[in-house]
């Protein structure tokens, strides 16, 4: 893999990283891309999958579309695409179809990378089109952005789970009071300990509404335990 990148390459990858940061700020997976022809930037874009609800809205695809529109030709011969992440199979395929001449990427994508991390689309010589591809430019910066994004996401999930446990606690207290009130109507002087052992009271055990409300309580308790288990895993 060629590791010698020009000053121009570096500048273009910095632009792509700026695009990736724009995605980050929109809570999108931070991937950015820039398309150049000669010394001109003809398109730049970032991932907008979440915003658009579109699984194909990857930075590279959007860049290819904008670039083709800008030059009025779908053949992007002579163009170089800079992307902060190793392209996926979809984007790698689109790059070949668009006749892009050269691709430079930043950090490897272990799960979806099409240039060796998962599979290598570019390993074999293509019968009609040769694409030059090289990775690792500003790898640390691109990878850090990804790590930061997924760490943030994990922490947000943790906060949500803590809030859920609090909510479940409130629901459980509410439901216990409801059960106690029900039980008090059926058996005078019943205590909260009694309702936890309703088997001792046939009147409670056989009461359909009591049984139903008891089932609701157990459901909430089970849900709370599941969230607690998730929190312990993290
Ligand atoms: Zn892609």
From TrEMBL:
<dbReference type="GO" id="GO:0008270">
    <property type="term" value="F:zinc ion binding"/>
</dbReference>
<comment type="similarity">
    <text>Belongs to the cytidine and deoxycytidylate deaminase family.</text>
</comment>
<keyword id="KW-0862">Zinc</keyword>
<comment type="subunit">
    <text>Homodimer.</text>
</comment>
<dbReference type="Pfam" id="PF00383">
    <property type="entry name" value="dCMP_cyt_deam_1"/>
</dbReference>
<feature type="domain" description="CMP/dCMP-type deaminase">
    <location>
        <begin position="7"/>
        <end position="117"/>
    </location>
</feature>
<dbReference type="InterPro" id="IPR028883">
    <property type="entry name" value="tRNA_aden_deaminase"/>
</dbReference>
<comment type="function">
    <text>Catalyzes the deamination of adenosine to inosine at the wobble position 34 of tRNA(Arg2).</text>
</comment>
<dbReference type="GO" id="GO:0052717">
    <property type="term" value="F:tRNA-specific adenosine-34 deaminase activity"/>
</dbReference>
<dbReference type="InterPro" id="IPR002125">
    <property type="entry name" value="CMP_dCMP_dom"/>
</dbReference>
<keyword id="KW-0819">tRNA processing</keyword>
<dbReference type="InterPro" id="IPR016193">
    <property type="entry name" value="Cytidine_deaminase-like"/>
</dbReference>
<keyword id="KW-0479">Metal-binding</keyword>
<feature type="binding site">
    <location>
        <position position="91"/>
    </location>
    <ligand>
        <name>Zn(2+)</name>
    </ligand>
</feature>
<feature type="binding site">
    <location>
        <position position="58"/>
    </location>
    <ligand>
        <name>Zn(2+)</name>
    </ligand>
</feature>
<feature type="active site" description="Proton donor">
    <location>
        <position position="60"/>
    </location>
</feature>
<protein>
    <recommendedName>
        <fullName>tRNA-specific adenosine deaminase</fullName>
        <ecNumber>3.5.4.33</ecNumber>
    </recommendedName>
</protein>
<dbReference type="GO" id="GO:0002100">
    <property type="term" value="P:tRNA wobble adenosine to inosine editing"/>
</dbReference>
<keyword id="KW-0378">Hydrolase</keyword>
<feature type="binding site">
    <location>
        <position position="88"/>
    </location>
    <ligand>
        <name>Zn(2+)</name>
    </ligand>
</feature>
């Amino acid at each position: 893999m060629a590791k010698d990148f020009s000053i121009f390459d570096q500048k273009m990858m910095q632009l792509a990283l700026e695009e990736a940061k724009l995605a980050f700020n929109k809570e999108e997976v931070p991937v950015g891309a820039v398309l150049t022809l000669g010394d001109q930037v003809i398109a730049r874009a970032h991932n907008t999958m979440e915003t658009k609800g579109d699984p194909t809205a990857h930075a590279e695809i959007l860049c290819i579309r904008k670039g083709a529109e800008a030059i009025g030709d779908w053949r992007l011969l002579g163009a170089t695409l800079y992307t902060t992440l190793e392209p996926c199979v979809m984007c790698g395929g689109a790059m070949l179809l668009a006749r892009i001449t050269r691709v430079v990427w930043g950090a490897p994508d272990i799960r979806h990378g099409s240039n060796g991390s998962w599979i290598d689309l570019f390993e074999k010589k293509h019968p009609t089109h040769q694409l030059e591809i090289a990775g690792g430019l500003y790898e640390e910066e691109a990878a850090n952005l990804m790590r930061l994004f997924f760490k943030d996401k994990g922490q947000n999930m943790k906060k949500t789970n803590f809030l859920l446990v609090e909510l479940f606690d409130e629901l459980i207290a509410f439901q216990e009071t409801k059960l106690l009130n029900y039980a008090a109507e059926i058996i005078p002087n019943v205590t909260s300990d009694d309702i936890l052992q309703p088997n001792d009271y046939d009147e409670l055990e056989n009461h359909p509404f009591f049984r139903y409300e008891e089932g609701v309580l157990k459901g909430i308790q089970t849900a709370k335990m599941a969230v607690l288990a998730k929190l312990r895993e993290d």
